[in-house]
Amino acid sequence: MLAWHAELVAEDRLTGGRNTREVVRIGETVRHTRGSGAGFAARVLTFLESIGFAHAPRYLGVDERDRDILTFIPGCTTDHPSQRGHGAYGMGGRILRELHDATDGHALAGTQECVIHGDPGPFNTIFRQGQPVALIDWDSCRPGRRLEDLAYMSWTWCIQSAGNVPIEHQAEHLRELRDGYGSVETELLIDMMLLRQAEIAASEAANARNLALDRVRRQSAEEAVAWAENDSALVRGNRTTLLAALLR
């Protein structure tokens, strides 16, 4: 007679970033609930693996609880420039450019320029020893324009109304990230940053009012609105300084 024993698998909850869903680590894999963009993200990650793109987790399928399975990438996210090393901003720009170049003209991009990550903030970037090594949380990836992805990264990596970061340092970080990515029209980059901030503020304000969402999600939305509006005010108030750095 055979005796069957259920294997207990330890799940370690991963925290950090701005995503409110549960993400767990099991061994050398990460599992999370599949969102509406899971199918497209799986195709993108599978393609990126096929071409040797080194800055994303590998997609391993779906587990018995209908969760996506991804490879675990050791490291940490960051929320302040003091946690990032020399050259980190330029490297971040190069990683994003590599993604855009790899998908430019590909069927996955449809009629758009390329596939964009959609949420390439430092809270969705794994760092090791102060340097970015991979983008995670690909649920927002989609066909889109290079500039909207670059502007979002530029904002979330470089602009910080909280944290006591001198504006001159923020401007220098912005220039380094832009230089890492490559040539882009400076005025258009600033304008797109402001547009992305306005879009986030508007969408999260709607979430904050949506009583169908739980209290934690609504509170997170309120915080996101304040974040976007405060950073937008900083950009508008220091546009000349930011442009001067980009034009140097």
TrEMBL record:
Protein name: Trifolitoxin immunity domain-containing protein
Superkingdom of origin: Bacteria
Coiled-coil region(s): none
Organism: Actinoplanes siamensis
Domain Aminoglycoside phosphotransferase: residue ranges: 95-165
